[in-house]
């Protein structure tokens, strides 16, 4: 469960009931919304018994079923990390890749921020050398 800080200490709030990855996300995501809602309420009641009674509305996304994304985040294999990923994080001349998928924090905002900072640092380190060679 995640307790987002939006409207913290207000009379009403939001609670993220579950956030799954891997094979289990596919199993749950294949269920209709009403069954996913019931899962969240049942599991939430284990921690907060009043959860089903105070519940008002729900929202659920099966990212792998969204046609234009086909998933919520990237996934690297061990071999992919050694080859493709290793080459991509180095960049190529003026081409750099940034995003959570370019870190070990896939699917998280801090991964995207870490990646962006890494690319900005690489460009900053390269810029003085490039200015000297083009001037």
Characterize the biggest β-sheet.
none
Q: How many strands appear in the DSSP assignment?
A: 0
- SS strand fraction: under 5%
Helix-strand topology string: HHHHH
Mean pLDDT: 85
Structural class assignment? mainly alpha
Folded structure, characterized:
- The chain is elongated.
- The chain starts with 21 loop residues before the first helix and ends with a helix.
- The chain has 135 residues and is mainly α.
- It contains five helices and no strands.
- The chain has two domains: 1-72, no CATH class; 78-134, Arc Repressor Mutant, subunit A (Orthogonal Bundle).
- The chain has helices spanning 22-29, 33-47, 51-54, 78-90, 109-134.
- The chain is 49% helix and 0% strand.
Put the structure in a nutshell.
The chain has 135 residues and is mainly α. It has helices at residues 22-29, 33-47, 51-54, 78-90, 109-134.
Question: What keyword list fits this structure?
Answer:
135 residues; 2 domains; Arc Repressor Mutant, subunit A
List the helices and strands and how they pair.
Elements: H1 22-29, H2 33-47, H3 51-54, H4 78-90, H5 109-134
């Amino acid at each position: 469960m995640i307790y987002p800080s939006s409207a913290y200490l207000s009379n009403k709030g939001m609670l993220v009931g579950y956030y799954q990855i891997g094979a289990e996300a596919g199993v749950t995501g294949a269920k209709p919304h009403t069954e996913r809602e019931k899962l969240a309420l049942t599991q939430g009641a284990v921690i907060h018994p009043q959860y089903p009674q105070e519940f008002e509305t729900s929202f659920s996304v099966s990212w792998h079923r969204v046609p234009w994304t086909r998933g919520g985040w990237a996934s690297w294999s061990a071999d992919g990390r050694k080859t493709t990923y290793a080459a991509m994080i180095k960049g190529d001349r003026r081409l750099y890749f940034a995003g959570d998928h370019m870190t070990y924090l896939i699917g998280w905002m801090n991964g995207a921020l870490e990646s962006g900072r890494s690319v900005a640092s690489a460009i900053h380190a390269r810029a003085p050398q490039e200015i000297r060679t083009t001037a």
